[in-house]
Amino acid sequence: MDLPSLTEIKKYRKKLGITQTELAKKAGISQSLIARVEAGTVDPRYSKIESIFSALNELKKEEIRVEEIMSLGVVRVTPQDSISRAIALMEEHNVSQLPVFRRNQVVGSISDEMVLKQISGGVDIKDMPSRKVKDFMEESFPFINPTSPLSMVSKLLEHNNAVLVVAKGKVKGIVTNADLLKVLR
Q1: I need a surface site. Which of 40, 70, 107, 175 has the fewest CB within 10 A?
Q2: What is the pTM of this model?
Q3: Contact at 8 Å (CB) between 65 and 165?
Q4: How many structural domains are present in the chain?
């Protein structure tokens, strides 16, 4: 069996979002050996390297994919929709953010947090029902492939309210922190 280069171990491990200790435990070897192999300071026996790559392959198979946890039927608004419509949709669907679409293209996002910031920043609450989504729109949520690993989407959610799941140029679903919590159940 041909094994990849030893320099690939760290890259594969990081892509899976696991620590050296987790990999070592799965491979049945010491964490210090993993560290030395990744640093290139040791030339380990073939059997040890085979154990490391077998563990990496097993961990890759075990990883949950985005499509397994995403929510289907993405609720959306347009830039011309009123803020009151956006808020009503958030309440109706029990979500705190929505992607903003112009036709079938994602052009931004809106969140209850942004609306509240605007109000606390001095926007007259009486004018809110007539205001448009475009007035409160933020950057679009990032996109991810349905077959991407859970670790990848969790990294994106550290800095974003949601992640859109896109395949062949079409939005198939959305992932939020609430979806990540499904994994724990």
Answers
A1: 40
A2: 0.66
A3: no
A4: 2
Angle at 176 between CA 170 and CA 178, to 5 degrees: 140
Residue 173 belongs to some domain of the structure: yes
Tell me the DSSP string of 50-81: HHHHHHHHHHHHHSPBGGGTPBSS---B-TTS
Same-domain pairing of 126 and 170: yes
31, 73: one domain? no
Q: Based on the domain organization, do 116 and 75 belong to the same domain?
A: yes
Residue 77: give the domain boundaries. Answer: 67-182
Q: How confident is the model over 44-54, as pLDDT tens digits?
A: 898 898 899 88
Residue 13 sits in a domain whose CATH number is: 1.10.260.40
> Three-state DSSP class for 144?
strand
Contact 70, 179 (CB under 8 A): yes
Give the model confidence (pLDDT) of 131-157 as tens digits.
Answer: 999 998 999 999 999 988 887 888 899
* Structure-block tokens of residue 168: 């062949």
Q: How many helices (H) and strands (E) does the chain have?
A: 8, 5
> How would DSSP label each residue in 21-55?
HHHHHHHTS-HHHHHHHHHT-----HHHHHHHHHH
